[in-house]
UniProtKB/TrEMBL annotation, chain A:
The name this protein goes by in its record: Iron ABC transporter permease
GO biological process, one term: siderophore-iron import into cell
Keywords: Cell membrane, Ion transport, Iron, Iron transport, Membrane, Transmembrane, Transmembrane helix, Transport
Residues annotated as transmembrane: 7-26, 38-58, 78-97, 103-122, 129-154, 174-193, 263-283, 289-310
Family designation: Belongs to the binding-protein-dependent transport system permease family. FecCD subfamily.
Compartment(s) where it occurs, according to its Swiss-Prot or TrEMBL record: Cell membrane
CC annotations in GO: plasma membrane
Topological category with respect to the lipid bilayer: Multi-pass membrane protein
A matching Pfam family: FecCD
Organism name: Lysinibacillus telephonicus
GO MF assignments: transmembrane transporter activity
Species classification: Bacteria, Bacillati, Bacillota, Bacilli, Bacillales
Main location: membrane
Keyword Iron: yes
Automatic annotation (TrEMBL), chain B:
Protein's recorded name: ABC transporter ATP-binding protein
Pfam families: ABC_tran
Example GO molecular function: ATP binding
Membrane topology: Peripheral membrane protein
Main location: membrane
ABC transporter domain location: 2-236
Keyword vocabulary terms for this entry: ATP-binding, Cell membrane, Ion transport, Iron, Iron transport, Membrane, Nucleotide-binding, Transport
One of the protein's GO biological processes: iron ion transport
Gene Ontology CC terms, in alphabetical order: plasma membrane
Location(s), subcellular: Cell membrane
InterPro entries named in the record: AAA+_ATPase, ABC_transporter-like_ATP-bd, ABC_transporter-like_CS, P-loop_NTPase, Siderophore_ABC-ATPase
Amino acid sequence: MRNSVKLILLAVIAIVCILLYAFYDIKGGFSYAFPRRLIKIFAMSITGIAIAYSTVVFQTITHNRILTPSVMGLDSMYQVVQTCIYFFLGSTSILVINKYLNFTISIVLMVLFALILYRFLFRADKFPIYFLLLVGMVLGTLLGSATTFLQVLIDPNEYLNLQSKLFASFSKVNADLVWVAFAILIVAFIYGFKIMRQLDVMSLGRENAINLGVNYDRLVMNVLVLSAILIATSTALVGPITFLGLIVANLSYQYLPTYKHSVLIAGASLISIIALVGGQFIVEHIFELSTTLSVIINFIGGIYFIYLLLRESRAAG
Amino acid sequence: MIQVKELSKFFGKKAVVDNVSVTIETGKITSFIGPNGAGKSTLLSMVSRLLNADTGEVLLDTNDVRRIKSDEFAKRVSILKQSNFMNVRLTIRELVSFGRYPYSKGRLTNEDIKYVDQALEYMNLIDIQHSYLDELSGGQRQRAFIAMVIAQDTDYVLLDEPLNNLDMKHSVQIMKILRKLVDELGKTVVIVLHDINFASVYSDRIVALKDGRVVKEGPTDEIINSDALKQIYDMDIPVQEQNGCRICVYFNSHS
């Protein structure tokens, strides 16, 4: 009972954020600004839900609450892909101009990268979580350095074009891609609905899950691919927001103490929408676009991440 | 009947379980005993498909366990390991309800609820059924997990060192419950034990392992005697009879 009340409360806050963002201080023609704001809200909701959903299921499958697909280096992979395209093919290449093609390539390469990375995670029983974290961080740094190296060499004009792809931004969301992303999200949710209760059993740990008849290896593989596709989709749509998943998933665990994934995912999704839409509102109307939302989220998320690490190590020690 | 046929498991080049063949008879308590590193837990894990065998096979009745669908297997055989670390906070009742998952897939029917109530009552947990697992003592936690396995209502119940970290009173309690499961409900229990005296007093059959091989296998009487124990543990262990129980007095033996 109390969890449903909490969810309703979150939903109300999310709706307030959305209404504020949609209607506050509309300048110029209503018919001009309003549809554009709606598209942004739509894009933010899709991104938020995709990140929240993929992070929660990823963390259940890997039995940890600190690693997220983004922290494990998926975001860096996106940056490498984009930088390579701009560096080797230039901003007039078909891979840049055709947004669908760019979107598809980003998703395919990120999912491939995730699968390779997960070969490691698969033997997660043998490695402590800090080892995996380290692998992710090292890979992320390696890819980040490669990106920087290429960016130093690249033509400055190309770099300006590239930069707009590498920072999460809701200011220039492509309306066509939003619908593609929405379709992917719907498919992911239909599948997710089928495995929701298996995920509940998963949270009892590997051995208990197998004991209760969950086809463990297959479920792990499916969910890992699912989470990679979702993260890739949201990143390709707006750019990387590394720490958002970590924040919303952990806030959801704290706020809704339950094992039920239907509740946890709904909670994380709503918190995610609040963070993105509410945050974007603050960025546009209080900071007057002097900063971007991803900078704020990564700043807060980074601090929260360190806090979680410290808490975890204290609990372990 | 569960038949283990020429089962091996290698970690690196070392055979942890080395060509083991064992038959587990129904309606009995079978104990796996042996020194540390003998491969008892590994063997149990392979029987319950937590771990894949490198060679050999495990047959449930006449079917290879790897060919049985996971959810069907979960209705026949349950396994409880010693470490049960969890990320989530659950009450005892929620945990025990998970035992019905193979049948109800998360949507509890009235029949499922009946099984959960019975399991809670069987393990004497009704009073504390709404307490959270992390608030319980080791003994209560262990009982809660066993209650989950009882709710799962499988013919075979496999337990990996269920007496770990339990005091004498709770150990005896749990062994008595396992005995009841076999005698009253007709279950088959397989248990990995460290304390040979519990194995001696409560089990019908004993399988003794050492260095990944079976050294002795048979009814409890045939295993609990100084000669056999010497082979298993490399110790001279006098066996004394007390109130019809054979007790191994190993505390001051020479090895």
